[in-house]
């Protein structure tokens, strides 16, 4: 079994908690409407928790969910308006597990359906992808005029600290793509730009691990994007009210400690309202749907020669205020 699930660490300096949008560290304080939800285990069944980063505690809210006829983080999202007060009370109670005593899964380990993904959504990444020749023999660096939407299979989702299967014999060109994931709260079809953020429950981090040779050779991207364990997600599902300015969030990827990607979400070619409006124009978005918004420049194929991942490499994807993924290539 390819599992290297680590105990949950605290993504903050000692003695502090979450990052606010001014870039300074501040505690959650008494505003418990701001939430980081997790799916965790203590060695047995999956549980749902609300994380208090200031106290380094995860508070089990599984029973509150079950009492409301809900289960999992997905159930919490679907029934959030009804459950919020109970979740806040559970956190205030002080009872819970030390964060270093639990193991994290992806916050949505069993997504409602495939992850919606967006290709070529940062200008500099469009250019590096074009130059690589993996996108088109003409090596075009032309920016897309419409969002490029594809998907990753649900079975690609894995935890924030689990191993990434290298799939030797299937691919020899493994790459990383750090991305902001948008979690839908209120579903709908035909959502307009001006109303898009009212449909967002919150955010998470995704590493859109990619088999470049499969992506290139099969033309359609599903196979190259959907190998098992090739969608690390987490560590938290962070409620939208914790993020004052989503455009100010900084996406960073490091491989073996070397910074490869770093860009603000404001650099997206097609912003979050545009992505939601485009996808929902004819497809009904569902509570718990996840949209991976695209990756900045600095992926492996952007280098000459390409810097593909190999067994033993450690990939860390961080987004300010949302935590960090850290996955080893098996």
Structural features, described:
- The protein is an alpha+beta fold.
- The protein has helices at about 60-65, 70-80, 80-90, 125-130, 210-215, 220-225, 270-280; strands spanning about 20, 25, 35-40, 45-50, 55-60, 95-100, 105, 115-120, 150, 155-160, 175, 180-185, 200-205, 210, 230-240, 250-255, 260-265, 290, 315-320, 325-330.
- Strands 3, 4, 5, 6, 7, 8, 9, 10, 12, 13, 15 and 18 form a twelve-stranded mixed beta sheet that branches. Strands 17-16-19-20 form a four-stranded antiparallel beta sheet, with no helix packed on it. It has a two-stranded antiparallel sheet with strand order 1-2.
- Strand 1 and strand 2 (about 25) form a beta hairpin.
